[in-house]
Design goal:
The protein has 93 residues and is an all-alpha fold. The longest helix has 25 residues. It is globular, with a radius of gyration of 14 Å. The relative contact order is 0.18. Pfam families: PP-binding. It comes from Caldovatus aquaticus. This is Carrier domain-containing protein. InterPro entries: ACP-like_sf, PP-bd_ACP.
Length: 93
């Protein structure tokens, strides 16, 4: 039996969904700290914001896993080079 591979369009839609969910979760987290999420893009280093620490990052990842139905794979991201929305989205399998 051969596994069906998702086509590029389906994968792109799923990646867009994960990025949207990450953005929404981050906006809520920033809102709780009284910081506007405007201007936060895919390449913004999230830890440099000064509001997202390791626990906050874990909260965002778990929220996206739950609502997005995809699993975060920490082996797909290099935490030493900075954590951005784009890198996080790419680490969801």
């Amino acid at each position: 039996m051969t596994a069906v591979q998702p086509d590029a369009q389906t994968t792109e839609r799923t990646d867009d969904t994960i990025l949207r969910l990450l953005t929404e979760a981050l906006a809520r987290k920033l809102g709780e700290a009284g910081i506007p999420a405007a201007g936060i893009g895919e390449e913004t280093d999230l830890l440099d914001l000064g509001v997202i620490d390791s626990q906050g990052l874990l909260d965002v990842i778990l929220e996206v896993e739950e609502s997005g139905g995809r699993t975060f794979d920490p082996l797909r991201i290099d935490f030493e080079t900075g954590i951005t929305l784009g890198k996080l989205a790419g680490a969801f399998a």
